[in-house]
Amino acid sequence: MFCLFALYIYNTRTLFKGGNMKYIVHRIDVKGDDMQAKLEQFINKISGEIIAIIPNVKPTFQLMGATAKVDHLLIVVKVS
């Protein structure tokens, strides 16, 4: 656990080295059946380095019990 935390801190420090880096956060609204196609289309047209893809997981309640669905994706892109 400690090793992973130390690695995260190291990567965060190297990520924010230099003051001229700019980041853009994009939001893609997705459903369960079209998520892969929309993400693939977006990644192919983007210019820049993708830093992270963060899913927004929303809890839902159905007849079978509680579950979760991905509502939208946040994509962090580094622009030089």
Topology:
Elements (H helix, E strand, L loop, with lengths): L1 H14 L6 E8 L5 H11 L3 E14 L2 E15 L1
Antiparallel strand pairs: 1-3, 2-3
Poorly predicted regions are 1-17
* CATH fold-level label: Dodecin subunit-like
Q: Strand sequence of the main sheet, in spatial order?
A: 1-3-2
Q: SSE order, as H and E?
A: HEHEE
β-strand percent reads over 45%
Q: Tell me which CATH architecture applies here.
A: 2-Layer Sandwich
Number of strands: 3
CATH class (first level) name:
Alpha Beta
Please bin the fraction of helical residues: 25-40%
Q: How would a crystallographer describe the biggest sheet?
A: 3 strands, antiparallel
Coarse morphology: elongated
Mean pLDDT: 76
Number of helices: 2
* Spatial extent as radius of gyration: 16 Å
Overall tally of structural domains = 1
Q: Gap between N and C termini, in Å?
A: 33 Å
What class do helices, strands and sheet pairing give? Answer: alpha+beta
